[in-house]
Design a protein that fits this description.
Distance between the termini: 22 Å
CATH superfamily: Mannose-Binding Protein A, subunit A
CATH architecture: Roll
Number of helices: 4
Mean pLDDT: 93
Number of strands: 8
Structural class: little secondary structure
Number of domains: 1
Radius of gyration: 16 Å
């Protein structure tokens, strides 16, 4: 994401990537997915890619739910390991039938555990992944999408984007339920939509933080191809 954005802070909540008009944030995010896929495996960018993102309005002005964007499965990672056969398996705290090697550490575009993208370096705290979605993969709310993935000033009027955890940050729970810090789709809101990267385990965002990475991440997104 940093390389493609041309910034060490990444894209933030603005994923338009040169797209304009209604639905530009989603279309741009899909282009980002295709661009990154091509960098990882030449030829893979020609597949039809969809970012797992919800929005209040797509090209037709209607609500868009991430779960409706990604086809019916099955889905595999870069190394051919199963992520899920169908949507019912995806819609769990962790994909229920995923290969054991990746279930609790969903890999990046190279098939490398997101928790430790450089095997020669220590683990990093980059669990937060933008989705704008609730546990059913549907729109979390109007303030959860950085103005449908077009905003990045960090002003609270843009909302605070909903994130899931690519690897479990903890179990959460407690009296009354509480947060489920293991959920890959939805856990909490990032502190803001501004670009920003935080890879240090700091126990949460720093006071005053307004970035997509403030709680531990780099503004990453999940990418699905409509065909394996």
């Amino acid at each position: 994401m940093r390389e493609v954005s041309g910034s060490q802070d990444g894209f933030g909540g603005d994923l338009r990537f040169g797209e304009t008009g209604p639905g530009a944030g989603l279309r741009g995010a899909d282009k980002i997915c295709a661009t990154i896929a091509e960098k990882s495996l030449p030829g893979a960018g020609s597949k039809t890619w969809r970012a797992f993102l919800s929005a209040t309005a797509g090209e037709d002005g209607k609500q868009v739910n991430a779960i409706d964007r990604i086809g019916e499965g099955p889905w595999y990672d870069r190394l051919g390991r199963l992520v899920a056969n169908e949507k019912a398996e995806l819609l769990n705290t962790r994909p229920s039938k995923a290969d054991a090697a990746i279930m609790n550490d969903l890999p990046n575009e190279d098939g490398v555990p997101n928790h430790q993208p450089d095997p020669a370096q220590p683990e990093v705290d980059n669990h937060d992944t933008l989705t704008g979605s609730n546990p059913q993969g549907q729109l979390q709310g109007a303030n959860a999408t950085c103005k449908d993935w077009t905003a990045k000033t960090g002003d609270r009027s843009e909302g605070t984007p909903q994130v899931g955890h690519s690897w479990p940050r903890g179990t959460g729970g407690g009296p009354g339920g509480g947060l489920n810090f293991a959920h890959w789709i939805t856990t909490h809101n990032a502190p803001g939509c501004a670009p920003g990267v935080n890879l240090v385990d700091s126990g949460g965002p720093a006071p005053g933080s307004n970035t997509v990475g403030g709680g531990g991440g780099y503004g990453g997104i999940y990418c699905f191809a409509l065909t394996p």
